[in-house]
Design goal:
single chain; about 180 residues; alpha/beta; six-stranded mixed beta sheet; two-stranded antiparallel sheet; 8 strands; about 40% helix; globular; disordered C terminus
């Protein structure tokens, strides 16, 4: 697993710098924890996170060959995490649908097929859905669209406790603002 440390500051003068730590989990790791209860229980980054984002490839949700599998994998992973008490209903958990620029014009289809179903299956855990376009090449949708809103959600939910983060023989104190992607 890889981690990204990001120092951000809210818009406006005088806002303090906030340190965020993002855990980047590979698709292979997600498949392992989705299919194995023992591996899910070892995946303790979920229990340490203050905000959890699960990123779903939006293009897979509009492709008739991949949408069922994408939905099944997402539901199964979330169910396993809840069954093993790895997701708390007190920690914000949000699904981020990527490639907004590629699915423009299909948002209603994605909502009816995927979003509505996940909302009904996980009403106590799922706090919301966001759409983002990281490297948009589509006219009318800017690069990074939706990212500001995600960062604001993290900063608004930030807890003031301190947490020690250990990695690569480096120990630092951060405000407890961890997010898992």
């Amino acid at each position: 697993m890889h981690y990204l440390h990001l120092a951000v500051r809210g818009k406006g003068n005088g806002k303090p710098i906030e340190h965020l730590i993002f855990a980047d989990v590979s698709g292979e790791q997600f498949r392992i924890i989705r299919d194995s209860e023992a591996e899910m229980l070892k995946f303790n980054v979920l229990k340490r996170a203050d905000y959890i984002f699960y990123v779903v490839n939006g293009e897979h949700l509009i492709d008739l060959d991949t949408r069922q599998k994408t939905k099944f994998n997402s539901v199964r992973l979330i169910q396993r995490a809840i069954e093993n008490k790895m997701l708390s209903d007190t920690v914000p958990f949000e699904v981020v649908i990527s490639k907004l620029d590629k699915i423009q014009g299909h948002i209603d289809s994605v909502n009816s097929f995927f979003v509505t179903d996940l909302k009904s299956k996980f009403p106590d855990h799922l706090k919301g859905f966001s759409y983002v376009a990281s490297r948009s090449v589509t006219h009318g949708i800017g690069a990074g669209q939706g990212i500001d809103e995600l960062l604001n959600k993290i900063l608004e939910s930030k807890r003031e406790e301190k947490v020690s983060v250990v990695g690569n023989d480096l120990k630092r104190e951060f405000h407890k603002s961890n997010a898992t992607l």
